[in-house]
Amino acid sequence: MTFFDFLIIIGALGFFIYGMKVMSDGIQKVAGSKMRNILSSMTSNRFLGVTTGFLITALLQSSSATTVMTVSFVNAGLLSLVESIGVIMGANIGTTITAWLISILGFKIKISAIALPIIAVGFPLMFSKKSNIKAWAEVLIGFALLFMGLDELKHAVPDLKQNPGFLSFLADYADKGFISTIIFIGVGTILTLVVQSSSAAMALTLVMCFEGYIPFQLAAAMVLGENIGTTITANLAALVANVHAKRAARAHFIFNVFGVIWMVIAFPFVIELIDKYMTIYMGMSPLNPEDKSATVPLGLSIFHTTFNIFNVLLLVGFVPFMAKIATRLVKSKGEADEEFKLDYISAAGIALPEVAILEAKKEVAKFGNVTMKMNDFIKVLINDQDKKTRNKMFNKLKKYEEITDRVEVEVASYLENLSTQEVSQNTSSQIRAMLSITNDLERIGDIYYQMSKTIERKDENKLYFLPEQRENINRMLEKVEKAFGIMIANLNSEYGHIITDNAEKAEREINQLRNELRKSYLEQAEKGKYKFQSGIMYNDIFSSCEKVGDHIINVSEAVAGKI
C-alpha cells in the first residue's frame, strides 16, 4: 500500500463521517425542540430513559450526539445524573442501528447508485427560506453522502490478494486465543479514538472483515474496543466541561468498560452461540471464510446488538450505584466551587440552540443569586462590628465583584457564539435579553463593591453611623432584598411570559424610601446633626442601593421582553 492509497482510505473515511455529521445535524435541527420535550417527559424512570436513548440515537444515527445532548439536559436541570445514565444506556443500543443499516443496505443494496438522485431531491430544498425544509435537505444529502462514503471506503481498501504481507502480519496475532482478543480490543479502541466516531470505526471494521483482512472473532473484539473508545472520546471532551458533564462521561465509561470485561469472559461462548444461530436459521456461518460476503456484516451486527442489549439488561438495575461511583470519582469542590464558576455552560462548545438557551438561562439565574448575596454582605458590614467578620466580608465583596466581571464576559461570549448559529426569532430575542441582564447584574456587582470601599474608608477614618442612620440603611437593604427576590423568581420563569407589576411596585418603594432618606438627610445635615464626612458616606450608601434597584427592575423588564 502506497502513501497515496493510505490517503484515499482516510479520505473515504472522512467522506463517511462527514455524511453522518450532515445527516445528524439535519435531524437535530428538524426535531431539536421536540427532542427536548421527549427527553424531559420520557425519563421519569431508568427504563423509560433507556427507551428514549435508544429511539433518539436510532433517529440521529450518533450515540455521541445523544450523549452530548443528554449531558446538556443535565446541565440545564432537565435530567438528573441517574436519568442521564439510563438515556446513555439506551444510546448504546441505538448505535447498533448504524451497523444494521450498513450491513443490510451498504453491502447488499447498491445504495450509492441512488445517492445522487437523493441529493438531486435534497439540493433544491437547501434554497428554501423555511429553516425546517432546509434541515430536511441536510438529512437527505447527509444520508446520500454517508453511503457514498461507505462505497468509497469499500473500494479504497486494497485487494487482499495483492497484500500477502499484511495478511501474514495479521496472522501472527490472530491465533493467540485470549491474547488476540485483548490485542484487537485495543485496536478497536485506538481506531475509535483516531476517527472520533464509533460508527465510522464500526464501518471500517465491517469493511475489513468483509474483505477478509481479519476473521470474524477479531472483528468482534474490535467492536468491543470501539465501545470503550467512544467513552474515552466523551471523557476527553468532558475535560473542559463542568462537573455534571464529567460525571455523565465517567458513568458512560464505567458502564461500557464493565460490559467489555464480562463479555471478554463469555467471548468464546457468545461467538459460538452466534455461529450456531446463523448456521441453523440462516444457513451460513460467520466463522466460515467462504461465507464472508453476506454473513460477516450480519454476524457482527448480531454480536454488536447482543452485547449492548445484554449489557443494559445486566446493569440497568445498578444505575443509582453507577451514579454514586461517578459522583465519587468526580467530586465537586464544595459550595464555593459551585458559586465561583460556570455550572451550566462550559468551554466544551455550544449544544443545540434549544438546549443552549436553557443552559444560559440557568447560568443567568445563578448569576442573579450571586449578586443577591452581595446585599447580605453589605448588611453584615452595616451591623456587625467584629473586625475579623468585617475583614472577611470586605474580601468576599472584592472576590464576588471579580466573579461578576468574569461571569458576564463568559456568559456573554457563550451567547454571542450561540447567536452566530441558525436560531429562531424567539431564541434571538432571548439572547438579547440575557446579554442585557448580564450587563445589569455585573453593574450591581460593581455598585456593591464601591459601597464596601465606602464603608472601608469610614472604618479607616474611624467614623461611624448613628443608630438612626444604620436603621435607615437597613430599611433600604430590606427593600432591595425584596426586589431581588422578585427578580430571581422572574429569572427562573419563562422569558416573555411574566408580569412586572410586583417588580415595578418594589422599584417604586425603593425610590420613595430613597427620596425620604435624602430629604431627611439634607434637613439633618442643615441642622448640623450629622457629621460632614460620615453624612456623605451615609448618603452614598442609600443612593447606591437605589441604583441597585434600577438595575434590578431592568433585569425583570428584560425577562418580560420590554427591552
Give a summary of the structure in a few sentences.
By secondary structure, the chain is mainly alpha-helical. The chain contains 21 helices and no strands.
Can you give keywords for this protein?
single chain; 563 residues; mainly alpha; Methane Monooxygenase Hydroxylase, Chain G, domain 1; 2 domains; 21 helices; 80% helix; 0% strand
Q: Radius of gyration, rounded?
A: 31 Å
**Uncertain segments:** 335-340
Query: What's the count of strands?
Result: 0
State mean pLDDT (0 to 100 scale): 80
Order of helices and strands: HHHHHHHHHHHHHHHHHHHHH
Q: Which geometry do the CA atoms define?
A: elongated
Structural class: mainly alpha
Profile the largest sheet.
none
Structural domains: how many: 2
**What portion of the residues fall into strands of 2 or more residues?**
under 5%
Could you give the distance between the termini? 64 Å
Describe the structure.
Helix content is 80%, strand content 0%. Residues 335-340 have low confidence and may be disordered. It has two domains: 3-329, no CATH class; 338-560, Up-down Bundle (Methane Monooxygenase Hydroxylase, Chain G, domain 1). It is mostly helical and 563 residues long. The longest helix has 40 residues, at 243-282. It has 21 helices and no strands.
